[in-house]
Amino acid sequence: MELRYLQSLHLSAEEETIGVLDYFSRLPNLKALDIFAKTDHWQHLPSLLRRTRPPLRHLNLHTNGGGLNTNSPDIFSDSVLFSTLELCLDLQSLELVTVSFTGSTFDMFVRRGRESGDAGIICPHLLDIRLFSCRGLQLLRTAEMVALRWATIRRFCANNIAQNYIFLRCCDLEDLPKIEVTKKCIEEGLNLKVYS
Predict the structure, then answer these.
(1) Which of 17, 78, 144, 190 has the smallest C-beta neighbourhood within 10 Å, fewest atoms?
(2) pLDDT tens, 56-83?
(3) Strands 191-195 and 165-170, how do they pair?
């Protein structure tokens, strides 16, 4: 099924309905995708993006499991998240709700995607990162992620003053601007906004 003019899609799905993603063949104008799904079958998402190649700018993923205040098992793997992000080269904003962060999760935000070539780190245009009820967030690893994203911004957006910011919305990271590596970025001109 091709939805040529669809620009925004909000999908709320359970285990038995998430497979609806397999029915889309082309989404040539999809810029915003918001999925709320309590399922462990998120492999449908990377296959959807690989098949339809939408020009996504905004991606919101709500897993409804594995968060801070629940004993639910993690239902969104690092490999699925990486496979998803490497297919979103123009992504500008990302919201993750109840996704558990591991060392591998942090690493994927600072390494090259297989399809990004010389463009730098995965999702090089990603400046607005929102993390809610995510377990495993670490202050120093998040500071490293911000510093590497700032280096990418400076390299590829040097003449665009509007691109000198990173929005990071998450809990328990109010001290991020005080970490040495992020202090240096701020001195270089980074406008870091941390919201809790």
Answers:
(1) 17
(2) 999 998 876 544 444 554 567 788 888 8
(3) parallel
